[in-house]
Design goal:
By secondary structure, the protein is of the alpha/beta class. The chain contains 9 helices and 7 strands. It has 2 domains: about 200 residues, 3-Layer(aba) Sandwich (Rossmann fold), CATH 3.40.50.720; about 35 residues, no CATH class. It is globular and about 50 Å long. The structure holds nicotinamide-adenine-dinucleotide.
């Protein structure tokens, strides 16, 4: 079977919802044992049940990726028993506002989850991965390479996610660790639904269509489409790929504008 992950152990942060949920289900359906690191354990438990119902293996861990102690405890508990083959740094939060509208506490909150959270996970997992190689994927965003209006702190954080990928890919090449990032444009997840509900309660359908059209292809992406790309990058079929960012964006980066 292509994209076979049998006998592989994967950690997916933020695996209880949206893109992380789809990645957890997809990696598990290809044979990986999936450890979900989540702030919201109740949603992670639901994903674990769904994976078990389809005959796969998964466990949920209560973990705030912004806390190095939390991450270390969870990683040590896994790494002490089995090799860690795959790390998907997916947990992330949004923030809206240009630099003037970004308060210090908002900047810090986004930094702690989206930047330090990625560092915490890579820092803890690498010593285990060095033994026999592995794969790391950072969930960046198109915001890492092109500006999106009114997303100062978020863009900062995704730029860091992208460049941490370059650094780790270079430093750990000789250990057989491949590191890549995925940069989605808008993907239809609870993240997007929550944004529309909170900011446009009276015209959320209209705004949904507007957001869909910002991708030249005319729609938002689906979590499963991102998960299938992640599956490929995690598999041995992608063993020639490291140090690369993969936009999955309906043409957003290259085809917007005349
Ligand atoms: N949806 C999009 O349009 C889009 C586009 C580009 C990039 N992304 C990125 O993809 C990733 C997933 O996005 P999504 O749309 O699936 O989001 P989502 O809100 O549906 O899911 C994110 C999950 O991460 C968890 N999480 C948040 N903070 C955490 C923390 N500190 N510790 C552990 N878990 C935490 C949440 O509980 C949630 O279950 C994010 O990094 C996001 O920035 C999303």
């Amino acid at each position: 079977m292509k994209f076979d992950l049998k006998n592989k152990t994967a950690i997916v942060t933020g695996g209880g919802s949206g893109i992380g949920r789809a990645i957890s289900m997809t990696l598990a359906s290809h044979g990986a044992t999936v450890h979900i690191f989540e702030l919201k354990t109740e949603v992670a438990d639901e994903v674990v049940k769904e994976i078990e119902a389809m005959g796969g293996k998964a466990l949920s861990h209560s973990c705030n990726v912004a806390s190095q102690a939390d991450v270390r405890n969870c990683v040590t508990a896994i790494g002490g028993k089995e090799a860690i083959d795959i790390l998907i740094n997916n947990a992330g939060i949004a923030h809206i506002g240009n630099v003037e509208k970004t308060a210090e506490e908002d900047f810090d909150r986004v930094y702690h989850v989206n930047v330090k959270g990625v560092y915490n996970c890579i820092h803890s997992v690498i010593p285990y991965m060095k033994e026999k190689g592995g794969v790391i994927i950072n969930m960046a965003s198109i915001a890492a390479t092109v500006g999106i209006n009114d997303r100062f702190a978020y863009s900062m954080s995704k730029g860091a996610s992208l460049t941490m990928m370059y650094s780790v890919a270079k430093d750990y090449l000789s250990y057989g660790i491949r590191c890549n990032s995925i940069s989605p444009a808008r993907i239809h997840t609870p993240f997007v639904d929550g944004y529309l509900k909170n900011n446009f309660p009276d015209n959320s359908d209209e705004k949904f269509e507007e957001l869909s059209r910002t991708q030249p292809i005319g729609r938002m992406g689906k979590p499963q489409e991102v998960a299938d790309l992640a599956l490929y990058l995690c598999s041995d079929e992608a063993s020639f790929i490291t140090g690369t960012d993969f936009p999955i964006d309906g043409g957003f980066i290259r085809l917007n504008g005349d």
